[in-house]
Design a protein that fits this description.
Layout lengths: L3 E7 L2 E8 L4 H13 L3 E12 L1 H16 L3 E5 L3 H9 L3 H4 L1 H10 L1
């Protein structure tokens, strides 16, 4: 099993690297608790995620919930195709990509 790591890039920017699945998501959540606590805006780049499953989607939703509770803004870029597909099936894709969801609604 490959690990996943949350890397701080400074100024509220973070990058997740590795496999983000049921075996690693809890560890990444633990890594994020302290790192996310002292920033107002959080930008997470998921471009380093090589594989993901529903636990990865659950992690992103947990980050959204926690950020809302703390009055923080959070955004995700380079969301893996596996997580996007799961989000679409689960009908939560607009939570992960609010700007894209707005574009789609405006074009209909």
């Amino acid at each position: 099993m490959s690990g996943a790591r949350l890397e701080s890039l400074g100024a509220g920017r973070f990058r997740v690297n590795g496999v983000l699945d049921v075996g690693t998501a809890a560890d990444v959540l633990k890594q994020s608790v302290e790192r996310f606590s002292n920033v107002g805006r959080i930008d997470v780049d998921l471009g380093g995620v090589s594989e993901a499953d529903s636990a990865g989607l659950a992690l992103l939703i947990e980050w959204l919930r926690t950020a809302r509770e703390r009055s923080q803004q959070i955004s995700f870029v380079n969301i893996p195709a596996q997580i996007n597909a799961l989000a679409k099936i689960s009908e939560v894709e607009e939570l992960l990509n609010p700007a894209e969801a707005a574009k789609t609604q405006n074009s209909e």
